[in-house]
Specification:
heterodimer, A: mainly alpha, B: alpha+beta, Tick-borne Encephalitis virus Glycoprotein, domain 1, 4 domains, eight-stranded antiparallel β-sheet, five-stranded antiparallel β-sheet, 33% helix, elongated
Chain lengths: 275, 475
Amino acid sequence: MSSSHILSIVTFVYGLAAFLYLFECVFKKPSAGRMATVVAILGLVGNTAGIILRWVESYRMGIGHAPLSNLYESLVFFAWCIVLLHLFVEWKYKNRIIGLIGSFLAVGALAYASLKPSQIQPLIPALKSNWLIAHVFTCFIGYASFAIAFGISLLYLLRRFGGPAILERLPSDRLMDELTHQLVMFGFLFLSAGIITGAVWANSAWGRYWGWDPKETWSLVTWFVYATLLHARFMRGWHGNRIAILSIVGFLAVLFTYFGVNYLPGLHSYGAMGQ
Amino acid sequence: MRKTDASVGIWDTIWGFFASVRLTIILLLSLAATSIIGTFIPQNKQPMEYLQAFGEFGYRLLSALDFFDMYRSWWFRLLIILLVLNIIICSIERLASIGKILFVKKPQFRPGRFQKVKTRWTFDDERSPEKLHDLYAPVLKRKFGYTQTKTTDEGTYLFAEKWRWTRIGVYIVHFSIVVLLLGSLVGSIFGFEGFVNIPENETVDTIFLRQTGQSLKLPFAIRCDDFDVSFYANGAPKEFRSSLTVLENGQMALQKDIVVNDPLRYRGINVFQSSYGKMAPEDRHRHVEPPEEVELKVTEKATGRSLTRKVAIGTQFDLPGGSGQVKIAGFQEALTFGGQNLGPGLLVEISSPQGQAEQVLLPLHFPNFDKMRGGAFLFTILGQKTRDFKPEEEAERYYTGLQVTKDPGVPVVYTGFVSMIVGFIITFFMSHQTVCVILTAKGGQTHVAVTGIADRNKLGMERKTEQLSVRLQSL
């Protein structure tokens, strides 16, 4: 079985986990929740196996490299980061709301990945660096953290502004607010680390650590938005709706950094380096 | 605050302005919003490209706002300077009070602070307060590191605290931002960013700066001994490799093969593989042939009347309305305009009936170039027919495109990076935690209350206090 087969199966495993989390939330059945966690762990194991197998496959093809080099691979890794983080937070806070959001997001990421070409491509010269893994890893842990914070903020606002009664089953406002804040801090650390590893890499590859390239600039815009959130919260005591809105705006900036930048004019494409 | 005269009042106002977190929020959001502009408008392109994209009015407006080089514009720099002032003044403002908290020999605990904590865990124990105190103190000592006991009429207070120093974390983060901006300043003053193309087997000692296009002589020369590009089976490039030799006073000083991601570094100057190309035909003494025929449109701006006709070198025709004559005077392989090479183009002469002559350049690769001139007549190139061209068979010769940089600010910037990450870990995941165990004798029993305070992550502290109370109850 090839890695892309495994990863398409994983999509459905995460889908089952998402369904079970939803079932638990709607019908208050703890047994469904426990099952959801087990299924999510199985999905994560499959996801990990898929990534490792893909890595091995690339070596068999004689173009061995970490599977972090194109959109398909990054989405698969994104899903992996989201589920890893959701299981960690679920365990730490003993609350399954995270699982509900995390598994839905993971399904979304993998479903989107399935629309993208999944052939293993050889690595272009610009990406041949030891910094690739450190850079992608830190960025995506950060993105995953912001993604889950976004999910919580969205549910929080929906409930605040008269969403369906089912939302009353979610945890207290205070816990959701606190989780958003904690996840944003965690994501902010990793986003910063991601920007820094990117800067160090750029300096070793192109002789400049910062060049206002659209991707760099948008990651900085994201950084500014979340920095605003943290200052508003720490120093001016913002909480609730306003923090939720900033967390949503921040994640929109993340999405633009990740996907939108590719549609901007005059993009300095990493793929075109050296040509 | 001192307020002796009006001038002090003004300084206080300015100080207060920079010490506010509201300013921080406004600046961060402004930086976020304005940074976006430069990602939608490609930066530092040729004026012609902007003219074509935005028209003349748009070009003038956006140019006046510095939107074509916005990250170096005065207003963007001003935002960054304001942010730095904001960071520094906020830090000074708060460091004084933090200093008092940080450098204490014997921490002062006020029971009143812990009375106000909303969440507290309580249980009763049959042993006496003294006994419990002796039982709990070592546990707290082990968990927190510092303990203190205070006895009042109301009962015995057992305090413990740890990580007082982590209050400095946020200042490390802010300091790191100032450091990395300083590092970038050092780089922009004492460093440079340039490029040079070296044909195989040739030596250069002069590069061109990216920003200004000016040339810069290096303290050494670089010879390109060989350039190789290899491809994967699917045609994608696999590796660009330049074999370089550094020559100092004619002596060989260093030899290295560089590839993307593995530069050559010599005397603080870095040489990176950035592009490559085959030697252009003209460099092999071959000419760019003039086109056989060019289709030209001439529009009289005042009336909008236009005429279209096919021309070749030497063609003469009348302007619309008989207001003069046009002659395709010649062809050049490389037109230059404002120091830029525009590639091949036509030289056109316009002569008015009064005998005045004007020369117009029409670069063949930029059909609307003439818009910029703002003359009474506008020339547009609609199409061209090139001569059939048979390249001579010759051994291919490559040149390597090198990025050459020097940035003495990099170590400073990296210091900023490292301290930022350290600062974040301290700020986000550690906090100054204090717990207070209150032991009160009540009817032969001891009432135990456990409360905790942290300067950050209050919910996490609540969980921690709960775990502590469970632990103490089990003793």
